[in-house]
Amino acid sequence: MGLNIPTQIVPMAKEVIPRALAMRDFWKTILVPIRGGGIRRRLMAWGLSIFGLALLVVVVAGYFYMARQIRQDAAALQSELASVTGERIRNFVRRKIERFSDNADALSFYPLGRKEQQLLLGLLVKNDNSFTEASIINSHSDLTDQSKSPKFIKALKGEDYISPVYTSTQAQPFVTMAIPFWGAAQSIVGVVSAEADLSFLWEVIGKIHFATAGYAYLVDEHGNLIAYSDATLVLKRPDLRQVAGVQKFLRNPAHSDPTPAQEGRGLLDKPVLTTYAPVPELGWAVVLEEPIDAALANVETLKRSALVFLAIGLFVGAAVIAWMSGRMTGPIRDLHEGAKIIGSGNLDYRVNIETGDEIEWLGEEFNKMAGELKVFYATLEQKVKDKTHELEKTNSQLEQANRSLVNASKAKDEFLNIMSHELRTPLNVISGYAQILKDGVLGRIQPEQDHGLRTILVQSKELLRMINEVLQVGSLEGGNVSAKFADVNLRDFFADIRSTYEVLPQKGIPLYWNIPDKLPMVNTDGEKLKHILQNLINNAIKFTEEGSVTISARHISQAIEFKVKDTGIGMPNETLPSIFQMFRQLDGSGTRSYGGAGVGLYIVKKFVELLNGKIEVESVLDKGSTFTVIIPIHASAEILPATDGDLRVRSTG
What we know:
Layout: H1 13-30, H2 39-107, H3 115-127, E1 131-138, H4 150-156, E2 161-162, E3 166-167, E4 173-182, E5 188-197, H5 200-206, E6 215-219, E7 225-227, H6 231-236, H7 244-251, E8 262-265, E9 271-279, E10 284-291, H8 292-295, H9 297-343, H10 358-438, H11 447-477, E11 486-488, H12 490-500, E12 511-514, E13 522-524, H13 526-542, E14 549-556, E15 559-566, H14 600-610, E16 614-620, E17 624-632
Parallel strand pairs: 12-14
Antiparallel strand pairs: 1-5, 2-4, 3-4, 4-5, 6-7, 6-10, 8-9, 9-10, 11-13, 14-15, 15-17, 16-17
Helix pairs in contact: 2-3, 2-9, 9-10, 10-11, 11-14, 13-14
């Protein structure tokens, strides 16, 4: 009767890992928390993600635990079945040897060569069909001829001998047995030999069945196939040294299988789970094999069951989480709906939330806020009217103040125009008569008188210049000044400016002109450029007590760079950002040493901007200042502003 032993096996990691990765991607793409959407949606996503992860961990852990237990149980059952079969074969062969040995003992009761001995050997062969022939060899037989045979050598030493298994042409396994034949004086007088048919092993091996497709076979100490359910395979005598179970046996023939139910190539060259058990005293081994596809059939069922359980768990979990999230977010939705109703103008609406937690407290505060809002709204209209009246009154005052400012500005402009005209007329008369007197038209004058007249002329011109600058500022502020671009020959331009300063100033400060012979034609407003440079030169002369003033120009890229450098008093760092503002003086006190209205640099900056250029200043206190003006060659070009605005102010002091 066959032995039906069920078994299951754990899947390899290479089969499980892809499924685990697929589950990870499922959670990542489907159930990750969603940033957008409502609270209920996020609660469901988070809850289902956490629940699904926990359920997945439980299912996978349970699956691997069950699979491991199944493998251990299968390995234990296969080991036990192999050991029991090996012990059964060993006992069966041992009984044959004992029966043969008992028969040999009976032969020793008769003198050697008596017919009784032949009769006993014949009865042995007749009564036990496992023995096919038996004989006694002594000194009167052919013992000498077989003295080198292993069976006789070992038997003559007093030991039992069992030969390696060999097969007949019908694939029947045979062994030769030999035991010593003892005489009356306890001496070995011969050898009793018999040939044993092991075909009974076919029945033992053939009856071994386990699981759905498990089978067994028997090999000798050399790995040769002794018994298998298919006799034709035994007859072919295949080389089994590459078979996994046989390899394990040949490496460790004296001990039980240390790694039962191990995967490898089987007897039929298919993937199997294999276990071996040695047959004691005989050097043989029973090898059990089960095809992997049959072994994994139950594991696949376990996988499907786990996936079904996981799917059902996720479905039930999703339903529970959806119900719980609805219970949690329902009051919040009520608050949202209440806010919309109140926002539409129904200030009498109140929410009714009874959850017994913080949301209920929030609902109470919401109703309280709605009541306060209603009270506030009731007085809001009157407050709006009051505020509107106040705003109208304020606007009226602002309009009146604005009209006053406009009128004041107009009055200022008219006053400046009138005063400049009225001041320039007597100044021109004073300057004209002073010049007539100085030229001696009205008679010879003394040196002291000449000095006084020269002073009158200089101060009259300075006063006239300041009046013109004030008028120029008014025109700039009113937007009445524009640039008239034309081609300017810089060689002639600087020749004209130099002629103005051919006579050294009263201070005797030398002027150095560093102007290249070849400068490109510039499309700009020559008069405004001349005003810019003359103003900077005049300031340099005015604030320089000793040293010199240097005027230079050079061509850089698509622009011309002009520099006016002096060795005068310089300026402190804190005054540099404000020197181009209107009515700003380096010394603003009433006892200042230098005159001027404080609008010269303001006009310079405005003119530079009209010419699409930029101006920079570097100054070190008590060492001098350098003003740099950059004007584009073409009127359509524009000098890029510095990083901190239209003007880049830099100080090295």
